[in-house]
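Look at a sample.

——
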Amino acid sequence: MKGLATFAALAAILITAAVVFAGETGEKKECSLCGYLVEESEALSARYEGAAYHFCSAGCKAYFDKDPKGVAAGMDYDPVCGMTVSKAKAVSAVHNGRRVHFCAEACKEKYFANPEEYEVNYDFVGGKVMRQKDMKYTSTFEGMPLYFETAENKAAFDKNPGAYVHEICPVTGKTFLRKDAGASMKHDGKTYYFCCESCMKKFKENPGKHLGKGREANYETCGEPKKTTTGCAAEKHGDESCQKIIESGGCPHMKAEAEKKAEKTEKTEKTKKTEKAKKRS
C-alpha cells in the first residue's frame, strides 16, 4: 500500500492542471504516470527497457527517473474504491483532460455522478494525498491552483516554491528541483531551466533542436566541465553523491582511485626491495 500511496501522490500533483491542456488540438499522448493527455509536441519522453514513456510535466518525469520499473508496471488506483488496477485491464474514461481508471463500470458510474466527491489532490509541502474538498488552503502558482492541508504548508510553498517544483533540462532531459537549476532563460515567452550554463548555451544556439517531437531522441550528455579536482575516472563524477562529500574531503571515486595507486606503488616498492636484496646475496 505504501507504493500505491506514493504513486497516488505523484499522480495527484497535476490533477488541477487540466486547464493547461484545455482547448488544445492535435494528437495527444497520455502521461504514463498521472494519465493527463498532453500535446505530442509538448510531451516529455523517456525510454525504459526498449519502451517509450510520455509525461505531461517535469514532476511526472522526475518520479519516473526515480522509479522507472514502478511506472512501467502500468498500475493505477480507482478513485472511488481505492483498489489498485492494471491500466491495461481497467475500465477507463477521460475527465477534465485526464484518463481515470476504475475496477468496474459501477465505480465509473459512481464517479461521474459526482466527480467532485472523489477528486483528490496533493499537498506539495506535507507530501499527503487528500480529498480535494477537505483541503481548505489554496494558492495559485503560474496559473495553476494548488491545495494544502494547513496554512503552514501553504505559507512554506508560497515562500519558496522552487523547493517543491520540478523542472527538466531540455538539452539533457535531467530533472531537478527548480531551486537546483544551474541556469535559466526565456524563449518565446516561456522560462526554461537548465542543469548547467553549458546546456543553456547549447539551447541558445539551436532551441528548435531541443523542443521538437520525440525529444528523448535529442537528449545529449551534459557538457559542463567538472567543478571539482581533476582525475576522477568514474562516469558519474560530480553527481549528487559526489557533491555531498567533495567539500569535506574529496570525491569518493577519486579516493578509491588514490587507494589503488597507493597500493600499487607499495607493491612496486616491495618488489624493488626484494630484487635488491637478492642481488646483494
